[in-house]
């Protein structure tokens, strides 16, 4: 429980205890003093005891056993009128019962704000009468004295009562504020629990997305390295068989196939370890492109010219790896589908962008009508995904019989920058 709530609850418990105990103490003390000083008839004594018992029973029934009923204004008003009537009757019998008027002051708290002031005035009037020996002892000669005593009682008791009311109202306000804070805290805890659930859900989705992205990356890497390498190996083995049957120059093709198989194996290992392509480890991007184009030309017998424009700068590994893999995939597509006689690869450093253009004079196609390939849709799709991962764009221009131009534009992120 919050400390503030504990303080308010403790105050309310003490307040209820006082409201419950004071009537018994005050009535008991007044009865004891009244019996000591009053040597009247047995009937007078019986009247005092009867009225005291009635007052005790009245207070016990409402203020102790059923205090919730006093929350209703009409019930509280009736309770207070009867209580003051009993105390007034006791004061009229014996002035010592003026001590019991403190119960009236305190139980005026049950009344609404409009009636509390009137209740204090009535209690002050009865108290002043008791202080002058009882209601029956006041005559015209003592009227001025009574009025002065009454005024003092109103000022003193009224001031103390007003102060107590203010404290009670402040306690009620504090209780309401604490209740509102507790409700807000409960809503906050519920929101935190909901956020924790959402956080766990987002983590699960992020893990799934990470697995999916990693699968896409590995699929693309396998397509760019192992698949292309094995395709080249198959091509060389087929060429070796044909050369053996034709002119016996098959050993050269076997050497090329062996070298390609080794390179593919090395690139596959680097892909699994998410490392940069081997070409970029050993040279800058323009030289790596020239090496890739040279190997492609040697394999397919189609000249591929590489040209670089702008000031060459070392870029982030992810950027350079994306451009190199895009060039490899574009050249692989030319070899598979274009039937070109010439290919031009242009790398352009342009301020905050780097562009890669791969053009061929092959058969061309209609880009919007390209169906997914038999190997799962990699190729153009793989290039788009790869370029998009580094916030780049890929544009394809082609017409049947007019060749194809592929242009990849990526942000020029320098080496060392993470974003």
UniProtKB/TrEMBL annotation:
Principal subcellular localization: cytoplasm
Localization terms from the record: Cytoplasm
InterPro entries assigned to the protein according to its UniProt record, in alphabetical order: HATPase_C_sf, HATPase_dom, His_kinase_dom, Sensor_HK_TwoCompSys, Sig_transdc_His_kin-like_C, Sig_transdc_His_kin_sub3_dim/P, Sig_transdc_His_kinase_ChrS
Pfam families given in the database record: HATPase_c, HisKA_3
Enzyme category, top tier: transferase
Cofactor: [4Fe-4S] cluster
An example molecular function term from Gene Ontology annotations: kinase activity
Keyword NAD among UniProt keywords: no
Chain ranges passing through the membrane: 17-38, 45-64, 76-105, 117-138, 144-165
UniProt-listed Enzyme Commission number(s): 2.7.13.3
UniProt feature coiled coil, ranges: 167-201
Keyword Phosphoprotein: no
Residues in Histidine kinase domain copies: 323-414
Catalysed reactions, as listed in the record: ATP + protein L-histidine = ADP + protein N-phospho-L-histidine
Keyword terms of this UniProt record: 4Fe-4S, Coiled coil, Cytoplasm, Iron, Iron-sulfur, Kinase, Membrane, Metal-binding, Transferase, Transmembrane, Transmembrane helix, Two-component regulatory system
Function field: Member of the two-component regulatory system NreB/NreC involved in the control of dissimilatory nitrate/nitrite reduction in response to oxygen. NreB functions as a direct oxygen sensor histidine kinase which is autophosphorylated, in the absence of oxygen, probably at the conserved histidine residue, and transfers its phosphate group probably to a conserved aspartate residue of NreC. NreB/NreC activates the expression of the nitrate (narGHJI) and nitrite (nir) reductase operons, as well as the putative nitrate transporter gene narT.
Protein name in UniProt: Oxygen sensor histidine kinase NreB
Organism of origin: Actinomadura nitritigenes
């Amino acid at each position: 429980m919050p400390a503030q709530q504990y303080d308010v609850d403790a105050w309310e418990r003490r307040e209820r205890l006082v409201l419950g105990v004071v009537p018994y103490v005050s009535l008991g003390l007044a009865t004891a003093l009244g019996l000591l000083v009053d040597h009247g008839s047995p009937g007078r004594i019986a009247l005092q005891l009867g009225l005291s018992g009635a007052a005790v029973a009245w207070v016990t029934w409402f203020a102790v056993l059923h205090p919730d009923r006093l929350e209703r204004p009409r019930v509280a008003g009736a309770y207070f009128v009867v209580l003051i009537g009993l105390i007034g009757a006791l004061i009229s019998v014996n002035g010592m019962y003026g001590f019991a008027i403190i119960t009236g002051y305190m139980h005026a708290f049950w009344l609404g704000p409009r009636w509390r002031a009137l209740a204090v005035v009535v209690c002050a009037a009865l108290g002043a009468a008791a202080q002058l020996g009882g209601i029956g002892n006041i005559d015209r000669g003592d009227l001025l004295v009574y009025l002065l005593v009454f005024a003092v009682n109103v000022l003193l008791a009224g001031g103390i009562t007003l102060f107590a009311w203010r404290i009670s109202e402040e306690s009620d306000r504090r209780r309401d504020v604490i209740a509102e804070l507790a409700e807000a805290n409960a809503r906050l805890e519920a929101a935190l629990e909901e956020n924790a659930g959402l956080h766990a859900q987002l983590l699960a989705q992020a893990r799934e997305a990470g697995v999916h992205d990693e699968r896409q990356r590995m699929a693309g890497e396998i397509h760019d390295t192992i698949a292309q390498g094995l395709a080249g190996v198959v091509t060389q083995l087929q060429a070796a068989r044909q050369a053996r049957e034709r002119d016996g120059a098959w050993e050269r093709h076997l050497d090329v196939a062996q070298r390609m198989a080794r390179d593919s194996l090395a690139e596959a290992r680097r892909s699994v370890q998410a490392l940069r392509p081997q070409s970029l480890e050993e040279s800058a991007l323009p030289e790596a492109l020239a090496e890739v184009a040279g190997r492609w030309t040697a394999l397919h017998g189609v000249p591929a010219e590489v040209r670089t424009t702008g000031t060459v700068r070392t870029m982030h590994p992810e950027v350079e790896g994306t451009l190199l893999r895009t060039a490899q995939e574009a050249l692989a597509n030319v070899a598979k589908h274009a039937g070109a006689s010439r290919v031009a690869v242009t790398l352009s450093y342009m301020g905050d962008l780097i562009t890669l253009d791969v053009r061929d004079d092959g058969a061309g196609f209609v880009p919007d009508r390209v169906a997914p390939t038999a190997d799962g849709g990699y190729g153009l799709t793989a290039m788009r995904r790869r370029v998009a991962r580094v916030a780049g764009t890929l544009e394809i221009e082609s017409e049947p019989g007019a060749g194809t131009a592929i242009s990849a534009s990526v942000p020029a992120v320098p080496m060392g920058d993470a974003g």
